[in-house]
Amino acid sequence: MTDNARQIAYWNEVAGPKWVRIQGAMEARLAGIEDMLLARAQPRLGERVLEIGCGTGTTTARLADAVGSSGHVTAVDVSRPMLDVARMALAAQRNVTLIEADAATARFEGVFDLLTSRFGIMFFEDPLAAFGNLYRALRPGARLVCVAWAPIADNLHWSVPLRLAIERLGPPKPRAPHAPGPLAFDDPAYVTEILSGAGFAEVAVRAEPVTLIGKSLDDEAQVATMMGPAGALLDEKQADAATRAELLVAFRAALPDYADRNARLRATVHLITARRA
Ligand SMILES: C[S@@+](CC[C@H](N)C(=O)[O-])C[C@H]1O[C@@H](n2cnc3c(N)ncnc32)[C@H](O)[C@@H]1O
């Protein structure tokens, strides 16, 4: 049995509403990663796709266009606020089914040709059981193509704000290795062990450099106060408005160290590929 209750509450009550509030900035900064994911996944006309953690549905829309009216996208998420946005955005899309469910335990028919996700697979309490469930959703020979964040040391857009936040607020409470969260899949050996253990063949985890496209340096500083490890630390420490305002200024001042004038930031993700035997 898996129990993702904590993450489900987090994505409904904390992270989902925040994401929706700054949806434009989040979509813009992650657009290049979506291009990379789709270029590797190559969804084809007529295919049946299972998308995990579809959020507000940006990747879902592109998958639906790629598979066309003879194909279908089943997109799953636990966050009602994010799914509400996806439902509005995809209302006219006839080849999409949006499901509010925990992907770790939802029952799927074993018919999918492609399992894909942009950053929606790192939140399982028991990833081995979750990927076992997802494995059974695929037809033999189906492919898995997902992205997850690489280590924080290779992602200055997170490590720099986190360092500044720790200096001001103290460290986060200790976490178990690979605990559910954005960095749970930062170790290729661990990801390989999980996917292989769940039955997948041809597992590969490749670090890929990517560019995040910030709307502006001011917007990027705002994103750092809300999302990622620095945003999570501010929530954990229940930072008050004055502290948040102070850190916003500190994050903004540090940005030129790792972003260009147009708010382009270098980052690294893991491109994870595998196949159902
Ligand atoms: C970082 S967001 C990514 C959203 C979207 N894929 C994107 O890139 O814009 C992670 C998403 O995974 C979802 N999620 C977390 N745990 C999940 C679970 N057990 N089953 C399905 N979705 C889950 C969250 O609600 C959230 O929408």
From TrEMBL:
It comes from the Bacteria. Keywords: Methyltransferase, Transferase, Ubiquinone. Gene3D superfamilies: Vaccinia Virus protein VP39 (3.40.50.150). GO terms for molecular function: methyltransferase activity. GO terms for biological process: methylation. Residues 49-141 form the Methyltransferase domain. InterPro entries: Methyltransf_25 (IPR041698), SAM-dependent_MTases_sf (IPR029063). The keyword ATP-binding does not apply. This is Ubiquinone/menaquinone biosynthesis C-methylase UbiE. It comes from Acidiphilium rubrum. The lineage of its organism: Bacteria, Pseudomonadati, Pseudomonadota, Alphaproteobacteria, Acetobacterales.
